[in-house]
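agent> fetching stored inputs for the zinc ion docking request
agent> found them:
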Amino acid sequence: MPHGHPIGVDVGLSKFLATSDGVLVKSPKFLKVMQSELKLLQRRLSRKKKRSKNYEKQRIKVARLHHTIDNTRKDFHFKQAHALCGAGDMVFVEDLDYRTLAQGMLGKQMLDAGFGQFRTITKYVCWKRGKFFGEVNARGTSQECPECGATVKKDLSVRVHHCQECGFIADRDVASGQVIRNRGIELISTAGHVGIQNAYADGLPGAEVSQSRSKSKTRKGTTRKSLK
Ligand SMILES: [Zn+2]
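agent> prediction call returned; pasting C-alpha cells
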C-alpha cells in the first residue's frame, strides 16, 4: 500500500541514479575496468587455436570473468535498491522499456548498465521490505520543472536544470527524479480515489446492486459521449 516518504528515481548513463532527495550515485567504475579486462581476455582467446589445451584454458578464464561481472553488477544493484528502500517508503521509477531503448543509439551502454535488471531487483526488494513500488510515464521527465511544471528544454549536454519561470535550480538528474516523484504521487492519489470508491460500495449491504447498475450506466454514457 502507498504510504510514507516518496522517492523518485532517475537512472541514466552519466550517473547511475539520481533521487528526488538529491542523492547521486555514480556509475560503478569497477564494472568498466572488468569489462575492458574481459575484452582483453576475449581477444587472447580468439588468437588461440580452437580445441587446443590453451584455448580451453582461456575459454574458462573468459567464462569465469563473465560470471564475476554479472554477480558484481547484481550485487551493486541490490545494494542500490536497498539504499532506496532505506531512504523512503515509496519508490517511483520511469516506465521506460529498456529493450526498445537498447536497440537505439545508446544500446550497448544501456545493456551494460543493466537498467532492466536494476528495475526488476528494485521491484523485488520493495516487495520484500514492504515498500511501495510504482512506475510512472517517462515522457519528458527531463524537460519539466518539478517546482512549477513549466517546460524547460535542455539537451543532454546541459547538466543543470534552471527554470526561467520560477527560478528553480537543481542538478538535471535530481530535477528529473523530482518530476518522477511528483508523477508517482499523482498516480497513487488517483488510484487511491478509485480504491476508496470501491470500499464504500462494498461497505453498503443491500445497496450494491442498484449502485453498480447506476454506475455502469453512467460509464457507458460517458464512453459513448467521448466516442462522438
Ligand atoms: Zn519552474
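agent> quick read of the result: Helices lie at 29-47, 53-87, 98-102, 107-113, 115-128, 172-202, 208-227.
agent> awaiting further instructions
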